[in-house]
Amino acid sequence: MTMAPANTGISERPARDMLAALARGFRCRCPNCGEGRLFRAFLKVVDHCEVCGAAFHHHRADDAPPYFVILIVGHIVVPMALVVETSLAPPYWVHAVLWGPLTIALSLALLQPVKGAIVAWQWAHYMHGFDPDHEDHHAPPGARWSGP
Ligand SMILES: [Zn+2]
C-alpha cells in the first residue's frame, strides 16, 4: 500500500530559467517570452505582456531598483573619482563637472533595466502575485478572476 503525498497547498510549478529571465528583464522585455515590452512608461510596468499575455501587474519591485542603482553607480563613480584625484589632482570644479552629470546619467540609464531585472527575478521565483497560489489583494480592478 502506498500513501498519497500530503497536500501541502503548493501547486506544481515548472522551473523558470533565472538567467534568461534576468537578461530579458534587463533588456526591458517580458521575462517569459523575451519579446513583449515590460514597460508602458519610464518606470510603469505593463499589466500584461502584449505578446504572450503573462501578467505583471502584481510585481512588488518597490524601492529595490533605486537601491541597486545607487549601489552600482556608487561602485563605478567613487573609484573613478578617487583614481582621478590621486593621479591627476584636478581642481574641485573639475570633479563637480565630471562626477555630477555622470552620476545622474548612469542612474537614469540603469533605473529602468534594473527594475526590469527585479521584476523578472520576482517572476522567475514565483514571488508575490506571480505565485498561482498567492491571493493578490493588490490586483487592479477587473484583473481578479471571479470564477465562471
Ligand atoms: Zn511575454
Fold blueprint:
Blueprint: H1 18-26, H2 64-88, H3 92-124
Helix pairs in contact: 1-3, 2-3
How many DSSP-defined strands? 0
Taken from the alpha-carbon principal axes, the silhouette is elongated
Helix content: 40-55%
Structural class: mainly alpha
- Average per-residue pLDDT, rounded, comes to 88
Elements, N to C (H/E): HHH
For the terminal residues, how far apart are their CA atoms?
38 Å
Low-confidence stretches: none
SS field, number of helical segments = 3
Strand content: under 5%
Give the C-alpha Rg: 21 Å
Number of separate domains: 1
The hetero compounds bound to this protein are:
zinc ion
Q: What can you see in these coordinates?
A:
The chain has helices at residues 18-26, 64-88, 92-124. 45% of the residues lie in helices and 0% in strands. Helix 1 crosses helix 3 (92-124) and helix 2 (64-88) packs antiparallel against helix 3 (92-124). It has one domain. The two termini are 38 Å apart. It is built from three helices and no strands. It is mainly α and 148 residues long. The structure holds zinc ion. Zinc ion binds at residues 30, 32-33, 36, 49, 51-52, 54.
